[in-house]
Amino acid sequence: MRMLLCVALTLCLTSNAFGEEVKVYAAAAVKSPFAKLAEDYEKATGHTVVFVFDTAGATEQKFRADSSAALLVTTEALIADRVKSGTLKGGTNRRLGATVAAFAVPPGAPKPDISTPAKLKAALLAARRIAFSDPARGATVGTHFTKVIEALGIKNEVLQKATVAPDGVETMRLVLDKKVDLGVSQMSEIVQANRDALVGPFPGEFELATTFSIWYRADVSSSVKGFAALITSAAGQARLAAEGFRPASER
Length: 251
Description:
- The protein has 251 residues and is α/β, with parallel strands linked by helices.
- The chain is built from eleven helices and ten strands.
- 45% of the residues are buried.
């Protein structure tokens, strides 16, 4: 891993200009691996990476509203939609990897059986407090979760005891602080927060795999392209895989 990272950073050193700020708007699911990659990039180049993390939908909106924004990291589907509509144009789009929606409990707490839709329904009804990210803010998992509880016929019961968090990172903070008994987030966000909290993915027909991509305009600086190259390099892929992502080559 370390050797791959050194090679990737060497390839990324394409600019002699030091001290540039690379501003990245990214979905919260990639927070931990990206922060670690940015730390290595900053040490190697002298540039500074500034992150704004949010839900997938809010991230894309904020990126478009900021003329100083350099990189966008959100769902592949959302980027494809914006490119098709012309909202995002004249740029480069590269797939990063995928993660699945999953459930979490406070570390050390009993883990419910969610292996079938019926057992998931029972677990959701038994939980006293549940947290998930806000669908109204473009949260991919939160939107999916509301559809699942509606399909299971328990939407009202679940929402009555639910806390709607701004994003998956805050959902996991509620879980780790034991303010909720069951959290719903991207598996990558759960693993990055605490591997012991992971219960497992949604069962069978309710599984949700979300592919993330990186997008940037054609006219960005070589420093921005350098950080993008590190993220999509073998070293970047290894970092993502270590923190709950499926490699971009896997469907």
